[in-house]
Amino acid sequence: MAIEAWLMDDTNEDPRLPHRRNPNQPVSMDQLAELGVLYWKLNPNDYGNDEELTKIREARGYNYTDLLDLCPEKVENYEEKLKNFYTEHIHQDEEIRYCLEGSGYFDVRDREDRWSRILIKAGDLIILPAGIYHRFTLDTSNYVKLMRLFKGEPVWTPYNRPQEDHPARKEYIKALTEKIGMPLAAH
């Protein structure tokens, strides 16, 4: 089963709510792929021995991983951390997250600068391209266990919007404009 995504409404209610428009406006895997978002469905119960995960890591050069439990009981300054994750930003590298337990939302900007909300659940591996405006929050369950994957030493530096002159943003816009370098085969 593919990941579920939709265009968000414009309300300022609790970010942990689904924020579906009425009527709901689904966003397809192909639409996400056109933005450079990649997705795989894997087995979260055997991630240590998952051959598909090993293939993805080798093919994309992800040689470092760590695990992150996000919940009020395990994260100091939980509400402040969530607020920081939910601030719109880009990264100079891909953001790779594999959901092992729980659930949450990645929001990405589409070509019209609208928010598309992506629900991630156990087994979902998602890759956001460098330079895409995005943010993250948990849903109302307030729990997710994520594997973070990196090329080389982990770097997680957010560059808050606006970042139109950042090299990663410029490269991302160029790729969208030229429709090159955005593989569709992941999902």
From TrEMBL:
It is a peripheral membrane protein. InterPro entries: ARD (IPR004313), ARD_euk (IPR027496), RmlC-like_jellyroll (IPR014710), RmlC_Cupin_sf (IPR011051). It holds the Pfam family ARD. Keywords: Amino-acid biosynthesis, Cytoplasm, Dioxygenase, Iron, Metal-binding, Methionine biosynthesis, Nickel, Nucleus, Oxidoreductase. Residues 1-25 are annotated as: Disordered. GO terms for molecular function: acireductone dioxygenase (Ni2+-requiring) activity; acireductone dioxygenase [iron(II)-requiring] activity; iron ion binding; nickel cation binding. GO terms for cellular component: cytoplasm; nucleus; plasma membrane. Fe(2+) binds at H89, H91, E95, H134. Its EC number is 1.13.11.54, 1.13.11.53. It comes from the Eukaryota. This is Acireductone dioxygenase. It comes from Clitoria ternatea (Butterfly pea).
